């Protein structure tokens, strides 16, 4: 049986907690307990849905071409895009998962918040401008800029769809379990609601509607988290030191929560998890896609600056919320703990720390607001994932690989919408099918694939003049395969999912990123150096022109012509 402590640490926020696979061996997402129906939360969520569906109706009138559908015609400002990126990035698992990790382990929860945050300078200084100057709709536009289109786009689209699939399953299962606890709705009903609303936003409103859903959700989440953090600090005269001292006093681990090593115990795993979080961010297709929605490279830079600001601020708040929960929830165990017993853990699991804290500081109305925010958060993230998956199929595979660049905008848009419907239906079915399964490893795997397959190809194709099609595809395949194989051989899958004996996992570390990403870069370098074909010579000769465009923006797509 899975221990109560482990179940408390891991359930609803399967995705983010598992990004390093750190605790994945114990997650059991199928056993959350349905709570009483929370009508305040449902009413607030209905208001959010009504507003966002109104925006979708407005956006539908503006979504006439493939460019409008994929990138909102390139007409989103840097500030708006920064908020939307933050909305896309700050998932429910991030909000509940990191605060739950801090609640359970203290200081060690920071490895996740810091890991995600430091990925943004990589994007700012290496990627944002170049992506906007070289690309049009997807990151494959950039990776395949001077390479053979068919193999590069086929692999890039495959990499994108694999990342989207694993991310989506974890989000849908997390959504069902989260809503079962927060709203008192049945799991299947919750998954269907998320799937239907996601399809409405993306199908009719495209990137414009998705962007505004993400912006509204980001504002709601930042407002709610700010109120919670201020309410906690107010109890201690706005003295964080007093908060930490009280947390050490009441937490069962006492002084251990203020030092590292509680969560990740070996340095290789710590570095590997950090690499997955940092470089995986720079390879997530639904995040990279957002840089094509702005009119210029300057706005792309500005959007990363704003996104980093909001995300950094948010992760500071989760730390305060986590420690606040340690102090305030233990003061009323009869309200927040199973049978009023601290040893049995929080009602609903450890990731409910932030939800219970919202009730402690703001009563049932604020609890309803935070619950509605958590639901809205899932909708915003799955909408972004669906859009990036649809663009990979319609733009990279249909328009470029199958039609060899001769597809008109109307047919490409039609394929996008058909793909959106298919992705939505598949997401709902997989969400229901995986209800009782341990999916904690899936988002970890998505991040590892993003950092081992997508990021090396993007990095080397843009910044290394000798990179060739053969090298990039070979390196990407090695990164993708090694990510999946090493994850299967790790404890998070080998023991927790495949039910092999504890301690029998072939791969001993929490994340394979340090090995799979390194292997990908090495293979790209070696194969490219060995490639002396005519095609390779042509690709190397095209690098100076690519560099000029990537650095200056000369020849880049304009907002209207996107």
Polypeptide structure, described:
The chain has 562 residues and is mainly α. It has one domain (4-61, 87-552): Up-down Bundle (Sodium/glucose cotransporter). Helix content is 72%, strand content 0%. The chain contains 24 helices and no strands. Helix 19 packs antiparallel against helix 20 (469-488). Residues 1-31 have low confidence and may be disordered.
Give the gist of this structure.
With 562 residues, the protein is mainly α. Helices cover 72% and strands 0% of the residues. It has 24 helices and no strands.
Furnish the topology, listing elements before pairings:
Blueprint: H1 4-9, H2 14-17, H3 39-62, H4 66-71, H5 78-89, H6 92-105, H7 110-117, H8 119-134, H9 139-143, H10 149-182, H11 187-235, H12 240-250, H13 267-281, H14 285-288, H15 297-329, H16 333-336, H17 353-402, H18 409-433, H19 441-463, H20 469-488, H21 491-494, H22 513-530, H23 534-541, H24 543-552
Helix pairs in contact: 3-11, 3-17, 5-11, 5-15, 6-15, 6-17, 7-13, 7-15, 8-13, 8-15, 8-24, 10-11, 10-17, 10-18, 10-19, 10-20, 11-15, 11-17, 11-18, 12-15, 13-19, 15-17, 17-18, 19-20, 19-22, 20-22
Quick tags:
562 residues, 24 helices, Sodium/glucose cotransporter, mainly alpha, single chain
- The portion of residues forming beta strands comes to under 5%
Number of strands: 0
CATH level-four homologous superfamily name: Sodium/glucose cotransporter
Number of domains: 1
Largest sheet: none
Our count of helices gives: 24
Tell me which oligomeric state these chains represent.
Answer: single chain
Classified by CATH, the class is: Mainly Alpha
- Share in helix: over 70%
